[in-house]
Amino acid sequence: MRKPEFVYVTYIETTPEKLWQALTSSEFSRRYWFNTELQSDFKVGSPFALVMNGTTTDVGEIVEADPPRRLSYTFHHVLNEQARKEPPTKVVFNLERHGNLVKLTLIHENFAEGSKLLDGISKGWPAILSGLKSLLESGTALAIPIAALGIEGME
Amino acid sequence: MSKPEFVYTTYIETSAEKLWQALTDGDFTERYWFGHRVTSDWKAGSSYRFARQGAPSIEGKVLVVDPPRRLAYSWDSCSPEARRERTSRVTFDLEPRGKVVKLTVTHDELDERGATLRSISGGWPMVLASLKSLLETGHALDIDPPSAAQNEAARA
Fold first, then answer.
1. Which residues in chain A touch residue B32, judged by CB atoms under 8 angstroms apart?
2. Inter-chain contact B99–A126, Cβ cutoff 8 Å?
3. What is the ipTM of this complex?
Protein backbone atom coordinates (compact mmCIF):
# COMPACT_ATOMS: atom_id res chain seq x y z
CA MET A 1 0.00 0.00 0.00
CA ARG A 2 1.29 3.38 -1.02
CA LYS A 3 1.85 5.89 1.77
CA PRO A 4 -0.32 9.03 1.73
CA GLU A 5 1.08 11.86 -0.37
CA PHE A 6 0.12 15.19 -1.86
CA VAL A 7 0.74 15.93 -5.55
CA TYR A 8 0.16 19.26 -7.29
CA VAL A 9 0.90 20.18 -10.89
CA THR A 10 0.86 23.66 -12.39
CA TYR A 11 2.12 25.34 -15.54
CA ILE A 12 3.93 28.65 -15.32
CA GLU A 13 4.97 31.01 -18.08
CA THR A 14 8.58 31.40 -17.03
CA THR A 15 11.96 29.66 -17.45
CA PRO A 16 13.23 26.73 -15.34
CA GLU A 17 16.07 29.00 -14.17
CA LYS A 18 13.72 31.71 -12.87
CA LEU A 19 11.48 29.14 -11.24
CA TRP A 20 14.49 27.53 -9.58
CA GLN A 21 15.52 30.90 -8.23
CA ALA A 22 12.00 31.50 -6.91
CA LEU A 23 12.05 28.13 -5.13
CA THR A 24 15.42 28.72 -3.50
CA SER A 25 15.58 32.42 -2.68
CA SER A 26 14.02 34.19 0.30
CA GLU A 27 13.69 37.37 -1.71
CA PHE A 28 11.07 35.54 -3.77
CA SER A 29 9.64 33.23 -1.13
CA ARG A 30 8.77 36.08 1.25
CA ARG A 31 6.46 37.38 -1.46
CA TYR A 32 4.55 34.21 -2.38
CA TRP A 33 5.02 31.99 0.72
CA PHE A 34 3.28 34.04 3.42
CA ASN A 35 6.41 35.98 4.37
CA THR A 36 8.46 32.79 4.78
CA GLU A 37 12.25 32.79 4.50
CA LEU A 38 14.08 29.79 3.04
CA GLN A 39 17.23 29.23 5.07
CA SER A 40 19.65 26.96 3.22
CA ASP A 41 22.57 27.03 0.81
CA PHE A 42 20.69 24.35 -1.19
CA LYS A 43 23.64 21.95 -1.35
CA VAL A 44 22.98 18.26 -0.89
CA GLY A 45 23.27 17.41 2.81
CA SER A 46 22.91 21.01 3.97
CA PRO A 47 20.30 21.98 6.54
CA PHE A 48 17.08 23.61 5.43
CA ALA A 49 14.59 25.69 7.42
CA LEU A 50 11.39 27.60 6.78
CA VAL A 51 11.13 30.73 8.91
CA MET A 52 7.78 32.48 8.86
CA ASN A 53 7.66 36.00 10.30
CA GLY A 54 10.78 35.16 12.34
CA THR A 55 9.47 31.82 13.67
CA THR A 56 10.90 28.52 12.44
CA THR A 57 8.02 26.34 11.25
CA ASP A 58 9.77 23.46 9.46
CA VAL A 59 13.30 22.07 9.28
CA GLY A 60 15.00 19.47 7.13
CA GLU A 61 17.94 18.63 4.93
CA ILE A 62 18.58 19.02 1.21
CA VAL A 63 18.29 15.60 -0.43
CA GLU A 64 18.67 16.54 -4.10
CA ALA A 65 19.67 19.75 -5.84
CA ASP A 66 19.93 19.50 -9.60
CA PRO A 67 19.34 23.04 -10.85
CA PRO A 68 17.13 23.84 -12.68
CA ARG A 69 15.44 20.44 -12.85
CA ARG A 70 14.91 18.83 -9.48
CA LEU A 71 14.99 19.95 -5.87
CA SER A 72 14.17 17.81 -2.86
CA TYR A 73 14.36 18.27 0.88
CA THR A 74 13.18 16.47 3.97
CA PHE A 75 10.53 18.31 5.89
CA HIS A 76 9.84 18.12 9.60
CA HIS A 77 7.24 20.42 11.10
CA VAL A 78 8.33 21.86 14.46
CA LEU A 79 5.62 24.35 15.44
CA ASN A 80 2.29 22.56 15.90
CA GLU A 81 2.33 20.28 18.97
CA GLN A 82 0.63 17.37 17.24
CA ALA A 83 2.33 17.63 13.85
CA ARG A 84 5.84 17.91 15.34
CA LYS A 85 5.56 14.35 16.65
CA GLU A 86 5.17 13.01 13.11
CA PRO A 87 8.16 11.51 11.28
CA PRO A 88 9.92 13.69 8.67
CA THR A 89 8.36 13.80 5.21
CA LYS A 90 9.92 14.65 1.85
CA VAL A 91 9.22 17.43 -0.65
CA VAL A 92 10.22 17.04 -4.30
CA PHE A 93 9.94 19.73 -6.99
CA ASN A 94 10.29 18.67 -10.62
CA LEU A 95 10.71 21.40 -13.22
CA GLU A 96 10.17 20.46 -16.87
CA ARG A 97 10.10 22.66 -19.93
CA HIS A 98 6.74 22.46 -21.67
CA GLY A 99 6.86 24.59 -24.82
CA ASN A 100 7.33 28.15 -23.62
CA LEU A 101 6.13 27.18 -20.14
CA VAL A 102 7.47 25.22 -17.20
CA LYS A 103 5.52 22.30 -15.80
CA LEU A 104 6.06 22.27 -12.05
CA THR A 105 5.22 19.05 -10.21
CA LEU A 106 5.30 19.08 -6.42
CA ILE A 107 5.26 15.77 -4.59
CA HIS A 108 5.10 15.83 -0.79
CA GLU A 109 5.37 12.24 0.41
CA ASN A 110 6.04 9.76 3.20
CA PHE A 111 3.21 10.85 5.48
CA ALA A 112 2.05 8.60 8.29
CA GLU A 113 -1.52 7.32 8.11
CA GLY A 114 -3.89 9.91 9.57
CA SER A 115 -1.23 12.62 9.42
CA LYS A 116 -2.31 16.02 10.70
CA LEU A 117 0.49 17.63 8.73
CA LEU A 118 -0.86 16.17 5.47
CA ASP A 119 -4.13 18.03 6.01
CA GLY A 120 -2.28 21.30 6.64
CA ILE A 121 0.11 21.07 3.69
CA SER A 122 -2.75 20.00 1.37
CA LYS A 123 -4.36 23.36 2.11
CA GLY A 124 -1.10 25.31 2.11
CA TRP A 125 0.59 24.19 -1.13
CA PRO A 126 -2.20 25.25 -3.54
CA ALA A 127 -2.11 28.77 -2.05
CA ILE A 128 1.70 28.97 -2.08
CA LEU A 129 2.02 27.65 -5.64
CA SER A 130 -0.84 29.88 -6.87
CA GLY A 131 1.04 32.85 -5.43
CA LEU A 132 4.29 31.67 -7.00
CA LYS A 133 2.69 31.39 -10.44
CA SER A 134 1.15 34.85 -10.17
CA LEU A 135 4.43 36.38 -9.02
CA LEU A 136 6.41 34.92 -11.92
CA GLU A 137 3.78 35.74 -14.55
CA SER A 138 2.50 39.14 -13.46
CA GLY A 139 5.24 40.38 -11.15
CA THR A 140 2.81 40.59 -8.22
CA ALA A 141 2.14 37.88 -5.71
CA LEU A 142 -1.40 37.21 -4.53
CA ALA A 143 -2.77 38.78 -1.36
CA ILE A 144 -4.28 35.59 0.04
CA PRO A 145 -5.38 36.03 3.66
CA ILE A 146 -3.73 33.16 5.56
CA ALA A 147 -7.00 32.51 7.41
CA ALA A 148 -8.53 31.62 4.02
CA LEU A 149 -6.53 28.40 4.01
CA GLY A 150 -8.50 26.98 6.91
CA ILE A 151 -5.44 25.45 8.58
CA GLU A 152 -5.94 24.96 12.30
CA GLY A 153 -3.63 27.22 14.29
CA MET A 154 -2.91 29.50 11.30
CA GLU A 155 -5.95 31.78 11.55
CA MET B 1 -12.25 1.69 -0.83
CA SER B 2 -13.32 5.15 -1.92
CA LYS B 3 -14.12 5.91 -5.56
CA PRO B 4 -11.46 7.90 -7.35
CA GLU B 5 -11.97 11.62 -7.43
CA PHE B 6 -9.81 14.47 -8.60
CA VAL B 7 -9.70 17.65 -6.53
CA TYR B 8 -7.73 20.73 -7.51
CA THR B 9 -7.61 24.09 -5.74
CA THR B 10 -6.21 27.30 -7.12
CA TYR B 11 -6.34 30.95 -6.06
CA ILE B 12 -7.01 33.58 -8.72
CA GLU B 13 -6.82 37.35 -8.46
CA THR B 14 -10.24 38.17 -9.88
CA SER B 15 -13.85 38.52 -8.75
CA ALA B 16 -16.22 35.60 -8.33
CA GLU B 17 -18.44 37.16 -11.03
CA LYS B 18 -15.62 37.28 -13.61
CA LEU B 19 -14.59 33.75 -12.77
CA TRP B 20 -18.18 32.59 -13.15
CA GLN B 21 -18.30 34.21 -16.58
CA ALA B 22 -15.02 32.57 -17.55
CA LEU B 23 -16.45 29.16 -16.65
CA THR B 24 -19.74 29.60 -18.50
CA ASP B 25 -19.01 31.80 -21.53
CA GLY B 26 -17.84 30.06 -24.73
CA ASP B 27 -15.74 33.07 -25.82
CA PHE B 28 -13.78 32.70 -22.58
CA THR B 29 -13.48 28.90 -22.51
CA GLU B 30 -12.22 28.88 -26.09
CA ARG B 31 -9.22 30.92 -24.96
CA TYR B 32 -8.03 28.83 -22.00
CA TRP B 33 -9.60 25.39 -22.64
CA PHE B 34 -7.62 24.16 -25.65
CA GLY B 35 -9.99 25.95 -28.03
CA HIS B 36 -13.14 24.30 -26.72
CA ARG B 37 -16.26 26.49 -26.62
CA VAL B 38 -19.00 25.77 -24.12
CA THR B 39 -22.66 26.40 -24.90
CA SER B 40 -25.64 26.18 -22.55
CA ASP B 41 -28.38 28.36 -21.12
CA TRP B 42 -26.99 27.35 -17.69
CA LYS B 43 -30.30 26.44 -16.12
CA ALA B 44 -30.42 23.42 -13.84
CA GLY B 45 -31.51 20.44 -15.92
CA SER B 46 -30.44 22.00 -19.24
CA SER B 47 -27.84 20.35 -21.42
CA TYR B 48 -24.44 21.84 -22.13
CA ARG B 49 -21.72 20.96 -24.59
CA PHE B 50 -18.07 21.73 -25.23
CA ALA B 51 -17.04 21.68 -28.88
CA ARG B 52 -13.83 22.41 -30.72
CA GLN B 53 -14.20 23.72 -34.26
CA GLY B 54 -17.74 22.36 -34.18
CA ALA B 55 -16.76 18.85 -33.06
CA PRO B 56 -18.31 17.93 -29.69
CA SER B 57 -15.81 16.97 -26.99
CA ILE B 58 -17.71 16.90 -23.70
CA GLU B 59 -21.42 17.02 -22.99
CA GLY B 60 -23.84 16.59 -20.13
CA LYS B 61 -26.51 18.16 -17.97
CA VAL B 62 -26.27 21.19 -15.75
CA LEU B 63 -26.79 19.96 -12.18
CA VAL B 64 -26.24 22.97 -9.92
CA VAL B 65 -26.30 26.67 -10.86
CA ASP B 66 -25.77 29.09 -7.98
CA PRO B 67 -23.95 32.10 -9.47
CA PRO B 68 -21.31 33.11 -8.57
CA ARG B 69 -20.71 30.44 -5.96
CA ARG B 70 -21.29 26.93 -7.26
CA LEU B 71 -21.64 25.26 -10.66
CA ALA B 72 -21.92 21.52 -11.27
CA TYR B 73 -22.48 19.48 -14.40
CA SER B 74 -22.42 15.87 -15.44
CA TRP B 75 -19.56 14.92 -17.73
CA ASP B 76 -19.60 12.56 -20.68
CA SER B 77 -16.52 12.61 -22.83
CA CYS B 78 -17.24 12.24 -26.55
CA SER B 79 -13.89 10.51 -27.20
CA PRO B 80 -14.31 6.91 -28.44
CA GLU B 81 -12.19 5.41 -25.65
CA ALA B 82 -14.22 7.10 -22.88
CA ARG B 83 -17.66 6.57 -24.43
CA ARG B 84 -18.52 3.42 -22.52
CA GLU B 85 -17.51 4.81 -19.14
CA ARG B 86 -20.01 5.96 -16.56
CA THR B 87 -21.07 9.59 -16.47
CA SER B 88 -18.89 11.55 -14.09
CA ARG B 89 -19.53 14.88 -12.37
CA VAL B 90 -17.66 18.17 -12.07
CA THR B 91 -18.30 20.74 -9.33
CA PHE B 92 -16.78 24.23 -9.22
CA ASP B 93 -16.79 26.03 -5.88
CA LEU B 94 -15.93 29.74 -5.96
CA GLU B 95 -15.11 31.38 -2.63
CA PRO B 96 -14.03 35.04 -2.45
CA ARG B 97 -11.09 35.48 -0.06
CA GLY B 98 -10.07 39.13 0.18
CA LYS B 99 -8.89 40.21 -3.27
CA VAL B 100 -8.66 36.68 -4.62
CA VAL B 101 -11.07 33.85 -5.33
CA LYS B 102 -10.41 30.34 -4.13
CA LEU B 103 -11.53 27.96 -6.86
CA THR B 104 -11.96 24.28 -6.03
CA VAL B 105 -12.71 21.83 -8.83
CA THR B 106 -13.97 18.41 -7.78
CA HIS B 107 -14.33 15.76 -10.48
CA ASP B 108 -15.92 12.60 -9.06
CA GLU B 109 -18.05 9.59 -9.90
CA LEU B 110 -15.21 8.45 -12.13
CA ASP B 111 -14.43 4.93 -13.33
CA GLU B 112 -11.33 3.51 -11.69
CA ARG B 113 -8.40 3.32 -14.09
CA GLY B 114 -10.62 4.68 -16.87
CA ALA B 115 -9.58 6.83 -19.80
CA THR B 116 -11.54 9.76 -18.34
CA LEU B 117 -9.69 9.67 -15.00
CA ARG B 118 -6.36 9.56 -16.83
CA SER B 119 -7.28 12.34 -19.19
CA ILE B 120 -8.78 14.74 -16.63
CA SER B 121 -5.92 14.25 -14.14
CA GLY B 122 -3.55 15.62 -16.76
CA GLY B 123 -6.03 18.08 -18.24
CA TRP B 124 -7.38 20.00 -15.24
CA PRO B 125 -4.01 21.37 -14.08
CA MET B 126 -3.43 22.68 -17.63
CA VAL B 127 -6.89 24.17 -18.07
CA LEU B 128 -6.92 25.78 -14.62
CA ALA B 129 -3.36 27.12 -14.95
CA SER B 130 -4.36 28.73 -18.24
CA LEU B 131 -7.62 30.09 -16.80
CA LYS B 132 -5.70 31.68 -13.92
CA SER B 133 -3.18 33.26 -16.31
CA LEU B 134 -5.96 34.58 -18.57
CA LEU B 135 -7.82 36.26 -15.70
CA GLU B 136 -4.67 37.68 -14.10
CA THR B 137 -2.55 38.71 -17.07
CA GLY B 138 -5.08 38.99 -19.90
CA HIS B 139 -3.57 36.15 -21.89
CA ALA B 140 -3.98 32.41 -21.63
CA LEU B 141 -1.09 29.95 -21.67
CA ASP B 142 0.19 28.57 -24.95
CA ILE B 143 -0.39 24.96 -24.03
CA ASP B 144 -1.28 21.79 -25.94
CA PRO B 145 -3.97 19.38 -24.77
CA PRO B 146 -2.67 16.32 -22.93
CA SER B 147 -4.49 13.75 -25.07
CA ALA B 148 -1.79 13.05 -27.67
CA ALA B 149 0.99 12.45 -25.16
CA GLN B 150 -1.29 10.43 -22.90
CA ASN B 151 -2.56 8.22 -25.67
CA GLU B 152 1.04 7.44 -26.54
CA ALA B 153 1.77 6.64 -22.92
CA ALA B 154 -1.28 4.38 -22.77
CA ARG B 155 -0.10 2.46 -25.84
CA ALA B 156 3.49 2.13 -24.65
1. none
2. no
3. 0.94
